[in-house]
Amino acid sequence: MKLSLYEQETIILYNQAEATAEVYTHDPRLLEKLRRLAEKYPDQIVKKNQQTFLVPKRCVSIREPYSAERRKAASERAKAAGYRPPAKRSDP
């Protein structure tokens, strides 16, 4: 069964006593990223079940949003370096 975009939620749980955070997600892109990281770093990122992973808390971060100026400067640097964004996928 395919979930709607609204239903593809992500829940991140952690507390002050433990060094890990539990990430539960139905977001396909995040699931793929977590699967790859779990394969690459099996001692740090653990797959608990189909949608749940344990990750070090230091991997969870909240960042300040980019300003329009910072976004433009980053875009110009990437273009100058020859970076091309990946092609957009079309869902079936």
Describe the structure in your own words.
There is one protein chain. With 92 residues, this protein is an alpha+beta fold. Helices cover 28% and strands 21% of the residues. The chain has a 4-stranded antiparallel beta sheet with strand order 1-2-4-3, covered by helices on one side. The longest helix has 13 residues, at 28-40.
Q: How much is the radius of gyration in Å?
A: 17 Å
pLDDT below 50 for ≥5 consecutive residues: which ranges?
A: none
The pLDDT mean sits at: 91
Largest sheet: 4 strands, antiparallel
How far apart lie the N and C ends? 14 Å
The secondary structure category is alpha+beta
According to DSSP, the number of beta strands is 4
Q: Strand arrangement, largest sheet?
A: 1-2-4-3
Give a short synopsis of this structure:
With 92 residues, this protein is an alpha+beta fold. Helix content is 28%, strand content 21%. The protein has a domain at 1-62.
Quickly list its features:
92 residues; alpha+beta; 4-stranded antiparallel beta sheet; 4 strands; 28% helix; extended
